[in-house]
Here is the input.
Amino acid sequence: MQAWRQRPRQPVVLLGLFVLMLLGCALALALSAPAQAPPRKRPTARPTRPAKPELNQAEAELAKRIAAAQAARDSGDASAVAQANQRLIALALRELGQLRLLESAYPQAIELYHRSLEFEDQPAARVDLAIAELQANRTDDAIANVDKALLGDPKDVRAFIVRGRVFMKKQDYTKAAEAFDHAAQLDPEVETFYSLGICLLQAKNAKDKERASEVFQQMVRRAGDSGSLHVLFGRAYRDANDMAGAVREFQRAIALDPATPHAHYFLGLARLAINEWKATPEIKAEFSKELEHYPRDYLANYMLGFIASGERQYDVSDRYLKAAVEVNPDWPEPWLYMGLNAYAQSDAKRSEIMFRKAIVLTGNEARATQRLSSP
Here is the structure.
């Protein structure tokens, strides 16, 4: 659910080729303005051709700006040529900025967006710049640019969503909720309602909590009631440290559909947190039920392995941990607990192998040592 971050894009390699082609066109047109307009040719009839596939947004904008630059060149109007070429170069720089953003090269993306804005100051480009600044943790700059975008287009939904994301990062949930509320009024998307509900719960007052419940009901009315929606609601309550609300929503998800992905896992996890991380048969049963529906669920396998390790049921623990590793071999935690299991059984050679694997995957020996000291 990250549609707020960017406009629809081609894969990175194709995007790079597209941007290079676009920039080449822009520069070529900028350098090729004739002294006078060429003679016009009489149109000739052409055979009927099949309709071309509809262009995507970026291609359509490119075609539009190239056509405008060519028309300006043909007119012989130097002022029109300069203006059209500036708009074409601005688009090229903006697309290069988007490419750098996709590559997580945030400082370069920010620089390219700034250069694009020098040629053409568009609200949408300001929002792109704000997204790059948000990713680079330059939240104050992001707010400044998104506010400038809203001055140019007060109904820019993406600008309000980015504004909400920035304030979420700053943990100012009241202002974030205001931004998402504006976005939802302009374009009532389920994702926007969910972000609004999260912020209202994080504000941690009774009035906003009640309003969050109303927002979630709006989501149900728009998307239809489903177990997956209630899992999302439960996670929002859990993240706001409202475990009773989380348990209620996870139970509702299971009541609607016992096979809702992750519903049993999150219910077990919430109950485990409520019980101060002491597993009960009821809690373990929830994780087991998740595996009945999804035997290769990483999280349920890992949690059952973690619990069994603490209960000194090492063979049982290793069975679940090995299943977790088969699903996701790149997470260090299962390797760590298999190492602890081996160490507890005086198998020094195996424990060293497991610990070294955990350290490599963690990428930080100090962090891995901390994990070892607090299993």
